[in-house]
Recover the amino acids of this structure.
């Protein structure tokens, strides 16, 4: 099967989620991933992909569904028709995927789930997708996942944390600090850390890095330079922003925006 729409990789951004598809995809072993507040669905339609979880030995998979904040190492998917759907924990999409997640860690899709999703992916790899198609594909993928007996929490219940997340969304990274955010919540810094851990499963600093990366890439449009967006999002220097964006996407920002080798569509939301 040929590469999707004649490019080596295509990525769609929407609602603080991303869908990436590539015939072959390699994330080097020296690329470190912090514990991201996002769930991930990884599927290879053809040859299995290899990865390591939580620093363990590499293993090969046809599919993986990862709960938020699972440490994921390298990925090697050669001639796999590989798809990755990444879902932020504070999005409406997460409320839908949460029921299918393991309480912690990861699970492989069962035979029935794989039988449902693989025809969808095979069709998508032979089709030139637009933003509407990409959203529809993600809807179909989520619809094929089975609810688990014990599920991850799907909503942020604490209003204090919600106020903090709204403040983070409204301000660049270099204008935010943990003491300031603790004042927004009306709690101590240590209690703020506990709120993040209890509701999002991650440290405040991890969430700040993740959301700031989304602020940068979420404003990208053809013709805009990522350098300006990285600075506007509040990263203190270009190297820092590039590193965090690399953690989010698994490739350098310059490659993901390079129309000769990759396709990036910002679908808004």
């Amino acid at each position: 099967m040929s590469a999707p729409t004649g490019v080596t990789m295509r990525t769609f951004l929407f609602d603080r989620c991303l869908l990436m598809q590539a015939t072959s995809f390699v994330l080097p072993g020296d690329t470190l991933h912090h514990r991201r507040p996002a769930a991930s669905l990884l599927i290879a339609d053809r040859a299995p992909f290899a990865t390591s979880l939580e620093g363990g030995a590499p293993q090969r998979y046809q599919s993986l569904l990862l709960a938020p904040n699972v440490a994921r190492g390298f990925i090697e998917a050669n001639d796999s028709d590989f798809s990755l759907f990444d879902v932020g924990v504070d999005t409406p999409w997460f409320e839908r995927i949460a029921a299918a997640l393991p309480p912690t860690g990861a699970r492989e899709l069962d035979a029935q789930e794989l039988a449902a999703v693989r025809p969808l992916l095979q069709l998508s790899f032979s089709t030139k997708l637009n933003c509407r198609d990409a959203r529809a594909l993600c809807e179909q993928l989520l619809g094929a996942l089975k609810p688990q007996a014990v599920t991850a929490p799907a909503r942020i219940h604490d209003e204090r944390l919600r106020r903090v997340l709204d403040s983070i969304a409204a301000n660049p990274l270099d204008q935010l600090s943990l003491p300031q955010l603790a004042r927004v919540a009306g709690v101590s810094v240590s209690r703020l850390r506990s709120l993040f851990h209890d509701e999002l499963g991650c440290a405040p600093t991890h969430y700040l890095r993740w959301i700031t990366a989304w602020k940068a890439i979420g404003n990208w449009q053809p013709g805009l330079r990522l350098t300006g967006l990285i600075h506007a999002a509040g990263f203190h220097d270009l190297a820092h922003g590039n590193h965090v964006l690399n953690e989010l996407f698994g490739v350098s920002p310059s490659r993901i925006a390079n129309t000769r080798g990759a396709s990036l569509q910002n679908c808004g939301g």
The chain has a mean pLDDT of 83. The longest strand covers residues 38-44. The radius of gyration is 18 Å.
